[in-house]
Amino acid sequence: MAKGDKFYFENFSECTSLAKKAAAFLVECLDNYRADDLEKMIREMHVFEHSADIKKHEMNETLAKAFVTPVDREDLDMLSQQLDDVLDLLEEVLQKLYIYDIKSIEPAAISYAKHLVKACDLLCEIMAEFENFKKSKKIHSLVVACNDVEEDCDKLYLSTMRDLTRNSTDALHTLFWHNIYDCFEACADACEHVSECVGSIIMKNT
Fold first, then answer.
1. How far is it, in rounded angstroms, from Cα 206 to Cα 77?
2. Which of 19, 80, 164, 183 could form a disulfide with 59 if both were Cys (CB 3.0 to 4.6 A apart)?
3. What is the pLDDT of residues 67-85, one digit of tens each?
């Protein structure tokens, strides 16, 4: 692989590292939740999201100037965008808690956030293998493992939404948490999209 190609894979690795840190920070926020601290939490989370935005801009600038890329330019751009989506959605969870003035956290939300940490951990492992994907013996299993985490999130989403519908007697509480869990689910889907994009790139280039 050409020396200049390392930029792309390093950029993706740095983005997944930011996602992992952001997901871990989300768990910390939910575990030690204080509604009065939400503005501070959002500011701290935004640091991760903004750093990922910078990485995406760097990717866009490099792709615009590149004559040859290690895999299709469109695939690199898509993967960069999907990684950015993960960070955006992690930030959005805290934003929704703030918008809806949530005073206490549902236990299932913490479980969901911990699943997202697992997914982001796997994305970091995937990106560590991605540069040498033609020789990697474990990248396929890592992609499958990330998809498995998303399936676990689907199951959690179904059970949580059913419990919310059956047990909540407050219409606004139901509506607010419905939207918050939708955001968690979208983030899990975004992690899966990243892993599937990597899988598709591998399939096209081997």
1. 20
2. 80
3. 899 999 999 999 999 999 9
